[in-house]
Automatic annotation (TrEMBL):
<feature type="domain" description="SIS">
    <location>
        <begin position="41"/>
        <end position="181"/>
    </location>
</feature>
<feature type="active site" description="For Fru-6P isomerization activity">
    <location>
        <position position="357"/>
    </location>
</feature>
<keyword id="KW-0963">Cytoplasm</keyword>
<keyword id="KW-0315">Glutamine amidotransferase</keyword>
<dbReference type="GO" id="GO:0006002">
    <property type="term" value="P:fructose 6-phosphate metabolic process"/>
</dbReference>
<dbReference type="GO" id="GO:0006487">
    <property type="term" value="P:protein N-linked glycosylation"/>
</dbReference>
<dbReference type="GO" id="GO:0097367">
    <property type="term" value="F:carbohydrate derivative binding"/>
</dbReference>
<dbReference type="GO" id="GO:0004360">
    <property type="term" value="F:glutamine-fructose-6-phosphate transaminase (isomerizing) activity"/>
</dbReference>
<dbReference type="GO" id="GO:0005975">
    <property type="term" value="P:carbohydrate metabolic process"/>
</dbReference>
<dbReference type="GO" id="GO:0005737">
    <property type="term" value="C:cytoplasm"/>
</dbReference>
<comment type="function">
    <text>Catalyzes the first step in hexosamine metabolism, converting fructose-6P into glucosamine-6P using glutamine as a nitrogen source.</text>
</comment>
<protein>
    <recommendedName>
        <fullName>Glutamine--fructose-6-phosphate aminotransferase [isomerizing]</fullName>
        <ecNumber>2.6.1.16</ecNumber>
    </recommendedName>
</protein>
<feature type="domain" description="SIS">
    <location>
        <begin position="214"/>
        <end position="352"/>
    </location>
</feature>
<keyword id="KW-0032">Aminotransferase</keyword>
<keyword id="KW-0677">Repeat</keyword>
<dbReference type="GO" id="GO:0006047">
    <property type="term" value="P:UDP-N-acetylglucosamine metabolic process"/>
</dbReference>
<comment type="subunit">
    <text>Homodimer.</text>
</comment>
Amino acid sequence: GKAGHDHYMHKEIHEQPNALRQAISGRIDELTGNASLDIDLDERYLQAVDEIHIVACGTSYHAGLYAKELLEPLVDLTVRVDLASEYEVYDGFDSRRTLVVAVTQSGETADTLSAIRRAKAPGMTTLAVTNTVGSTITREVDDSLFIKAGPEIGVAATKTFVSQVTALALFTIYLGRLRGTISAGDGADILENIRRLPNAVQSILDAEPNIKRLAKQYVDSDAFFFIGRGLAYPVALESALKLKEISYAHAEGFAAGELKHGPLALVTKNTPVLAFLSESASPDETFNNVKEVESRGAPVIGLSTSDGTESFCKHTIDIPSLGRLEPLVANVALQLFAYHVANEMGRPIDKPRNLAKSVTVE
Ligand code: M6R
C-alpha cells in the first residue's frame, strides 16, 4: 500500500534514501577506492572497449545523459547516448570494441529491447542497467547490473532515476579503476560522495514544506522552465519531463546557454525559471542566464550550494555540497516541486492520462 502517503509517487520520492542504501550496499570498497559490482563481462574486453553507446527512453535516457557526463571525463572512452527509438547502427566504429548499455527500469520497454536487438546483430556486447530481475531485457543482454531500488508503482519514475545514476556512477569507478584512468585516491573521493548521497537526499526531503510553498505560489504559471549546464542539463530535462507528465503544465528543460538562442522568447513574468546553480554545474555562467530571464521579469528559483550567487534569485532551495552528485540531489527537490504542483491541480498523479508505467509498444 501507500503507507500513509496520498500517492505512490510521494511514497517513492521518500523512499529514495533507503533505495540508495540498497543500491550501494556491499558495492563500495573504500580500501582500494573501487566499486565491487557483480559484473561478469570479460575484464580484458572492458579494458579494450573504446566506445559506449547508451540506449534508453524517458527518465532512463536522462540517467544515461548524466552517466555520459560522469564517464567521459573519468574514463578514456567516447560515450554516445541515444533515445532507444532513434538508435541506429552504422559502420564507422569497431563493433568488437563497443559496449552497448541499455538503461531501463522495467526491463520491458519495447523501444529499448529493439535497440538492443539492433546492437546485437553486428555482434556488440550488451549490458542492461535495470531494476527488474527476470525482466525480458535481462534474458537478451550479455550481463545485467541491478539498481536494487525496489518496486516502483507510480507512472512517474522517481527513486529509480537516482538509483540508475548511482549504479552508473559505481560502474564509472569500476571501469576507470580497471582501465587505470581513475586513481585509488580519486576513486575513494567519488565513493565518499556516493556514500553521503542517502543523507544528502534526506536533507532535501526535510525541506519539503519550503518546496511545497513554492509549488503553491507558482501553480498558475503559464509555463515552467528548467535550466542547467553540464551535469545539471540532463537534470533540467528530467525535471521538465516529471512536471509535464504529472501536471500537464507546459514545462521545458534547456541547456542554460541555449536560452538566448530562442527559448528566451517564451520567458515572461508568468514563467518561473528553475535554475541549477550548484558548484559542480558552472554556477557563474548560469548566473548570467539567470540575469537574462530576471530582466524579462521571470521569477527565478535557484537550486544552489549557497556560495552567494543564489542571493540574486527570488527564491532559493539549498543543495548540500556533493561534487559530481549535486545535480542528482537537486533533482529530488524538483520531484517534490512537480508533485506538489500536480497535487495542487488535483491531477491523478500515479496514473496520468495517456501514459502507462511500462511502454511495451514501439
Ligand atoms: O522502464 P523504462 O525505464 O525503460 O521506462 C522508460 C520510460 O518509459 C520512463 O522513464 C518514462 O519516461 C517515465 N514515465 C518517466 O517518469
